[in-house]
């Protein structure tokens, strides 16, 4: 049985990432960009978008701490700034009224939007990267090497699960959009926005504690 210590990185990471990525909010973007494409090409767009998003998040998890050291950024500063970024995104989701639908646009099969803008910044935007690096910075402060390895692995699994859920949503975009409708999607987006604000506050509090401990 997995230790609760590792499970907190698996489930905590998954919840944080699924909230910040908010797969349902990517449905209008995906539909508008792939409209006019054949079914096979749309499936490939969904596949590669999630592959790219997973790669971006995994690289951020693995190399995020190296970038912090290179630029001389402390863990506390990262968590506080990341918390503000995540909180602002959550605020926009909760109180914003931007229309992500737009007019239908005819696309051709040779067009490729899987990396930009679907994977980045659509799925793996600044907020997502900030969350991943924030988790990586917490793991890097663990005193035990085995605990660090296990926590990194579980967070990696959480990233893969998040992208798997996003993949299912994108592959079912037309069906989900028809079932939820604009109002249902808006309600879920606002709920995700509130949860993001909570995660942002948690990041800021963690960063402040790190600053106090290091002073």
Automatic annotation (TrEMBL):
The keyword Glycoprotein does not apply. It is found in: Cell inner membrane; Cell membrane. The chain crosses the membrane at residues 6-29, 50-71, 77-94, 115-136, 148-170, 191-212. One of its GO terms (cellular component) is plasma membrane. Its main location: membrane. It is a multi-pass membrane protein. Belongs to the UPF0056 (MarC) family. This is UPF0056 membrane protein. It comes from Parasutterella excrementihominis YIT 11859.
């Amino acid at each position: 049985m997995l230790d609760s210590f590792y499970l907190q990185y698996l489930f905590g990471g998954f919840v944080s990432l699924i909230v910040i990525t908010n797969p349902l909010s990517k449905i209008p973007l995906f539909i508008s960009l792939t409209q006019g494409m054949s079914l096979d090409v749309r499936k490939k767009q969904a596949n590669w978008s999630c592959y790219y998003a997973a790669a971006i998040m995994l690289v951020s998890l693995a190399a995020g701490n190296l970038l912090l050291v290179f630029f001389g950024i402390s863990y506390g500063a990262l968590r506080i700034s990341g918390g503000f970024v995540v909180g602002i995104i959550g605020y926009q989701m909760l109180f914003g009224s931007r229309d992500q639908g737009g007019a239908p646009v005819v696309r051709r099969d040779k067009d490729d939007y899987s990396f930009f803008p679907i994977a980045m910044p659509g799925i793996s935007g600044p907020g997502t990267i900030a969350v991943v690096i924030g988790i990586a910075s917490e793991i890097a402060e663990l005193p035990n090497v085995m605990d660090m390895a296990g926590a990194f692995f579980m967070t990696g699994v959480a990233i893969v699960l998040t992208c798997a859920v996003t993949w299912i949503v994108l592959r079912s975009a037309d069906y989900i959009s028809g079932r939820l409708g604009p109002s249902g999607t808006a309600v879920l987006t606002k709920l995700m926005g509130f949860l993001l604000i909570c995660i942002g506050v948690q990041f800021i509090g963690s960063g402040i504690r790190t600053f106090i401990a290091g002073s």
